[in-house]
Amino acid sequence: xxxxxxxxxxxxxxxxxxxxxxxxxxxxxxxxxxxxxxxxxxxxxxxxxxxxxxxxxxxxxxxxxxxxxxxxxxxxxxxxxxxxxxxxxxxxxxxxxxxxxxxxxxxxxxxxxxxxxxxxxxxxxxxxxxxxxxxxxxxxxxxxxxxxxxxxxxxxxxxxxxxxxxxxxxxxxxxxxxxxxxxxxxxxxxxxxxxxxxxxxxxxxxxxxxxxxxxxxxxxxxxxxxxxxxxxxxxxxxxxxxxxxxxxxxxxxxxxxxxxxxxxxxxxxxxxxxxxxxxxxxxxxxxxxxxxxxxxxxxxxxxxxxxxxxxxxxxxxxxxxxxxxxxxxxxxxxxxxxxxxxxxxxxxxxxxxxxxxxxxxxxxxxxxxxxxxxxxxxxxxxxxxxxxxxxxxxxxxxxxxxxxxxxxxxxxxxxxxxxxxxxxxxxxxxxxxxxxxxxxxxxxxxxxxxxxxxxxxxxxxxxxxxxxxxxxxxxxxxxxxxxxxxxxxxxxxxxxxxxxxxxxxxxxxxxxxxxxx
Length: 517
Description:
By secondary structure, this protein is of the alpha/beta class. Helix content is about 45%, strand content about 20%. The protein contains 19 helices and 16 strands. The strands form three sheets. An eight-stranded mixed β-barrel has the order 8-9-11-12-13-14-15-16, surrounded by five helices. It has a four-stranded antiparallel beta sheet with strand order 2-1-4-3. Strand 12, helix 15 and strand 13 form a beta-alpha-beta unit. It is rod-shaped. It starts with a helix and ends in an 11-residue tail after the last helix.
């Protein structure tokens, strides 16, 4: 299990498992930050445009009101040449009674006077009586002039009530001669001493000048007001971003994670053809002829090179991909066996099958798909039962699968006999044709111990099974199994696992004199 986890970490490294969610979360945060910044700019531009339009409308409204006041004054001046007379004062008070005036200064050819309005500004616009004074000069002709001293804030109150929007200030300001902008407190105050910080704290000012009168409408919008308006929309934006992030994580990203996982890599390997079969020859000990071969699955990995079975087979055996992998192996083995049989007609081919699949009827279906359904279609095929997992050999399903395979001519071998879960009791529960003695019984350093191999061979022979010795690497080991009467062997002494072309080159033109069937 430790070796399986080690190779799984190589195929799907721990840092990759951690990096995928970290990179995804970091990307979502970065995209969210950029989106929120752009959203703030969009919202800010929209608000600024809205206030600019409002300033233009207020300027037009102011022009209409000042035109009306001018018309009223001229009407009174037309009826009375002397506005300082009781009749003139009475006429002005009647006409300008509801205008937000601080006072009216009249200057004639011979006299001058200042008229106070009959209605106080406290009654017209409470709380803003002394804000934004604006002087509007009127030339009445004949040397007569009138100066209307207005309260600009009170004039705009009818359209923009105070406190309509928190922090936003609407003002009507005079235009100083020689200047293109309004004369305000910010122009004459200590704001210049604030330095660079004023760039970030100064409000956004939107202006719209009158086309007829020396006044300008100024709307001051503090940045904090813009931020507060934007922050009100942030929870909705974050919920949308979070929902989109979850949809991506469990949608497209789940496909990416599956593709990068061991399961995804195996699926891609099956689809791309990265798997291939290597063959370990089965040798007749007496003649050293190749009479069969064992198919071994290999993976030509794009990053790790050729992977040995222990790197991925234990993981595949416990995954849903075991059936797809076994199907691929059987199909490929059937194609390769047809080439082997052209040189050696009775050449046998062994295929490793996980124990759990011997209880699954799909194994028989896959064998039929690969080798055909003709009688004895599997007569050259040996199914090796690998003993890496415990299995209930008395299960009816297992017995049924083995009988179906045997009816099609297949033979059954027990791999790695003597280690793991394999024992002599197994041979009494299922019908076995071959027993492959594990290489651990052939280690030369163990020859001083009791001769387990020599004791095991007669017993197995009495049970009616053929013996194959695995892991033969030296002539001494070969001589030992020959003395024990073992007929067949495999090992690096004869050949390492080779691909189909090399195996075909090593086969004789005529059938070998002996074979395990």
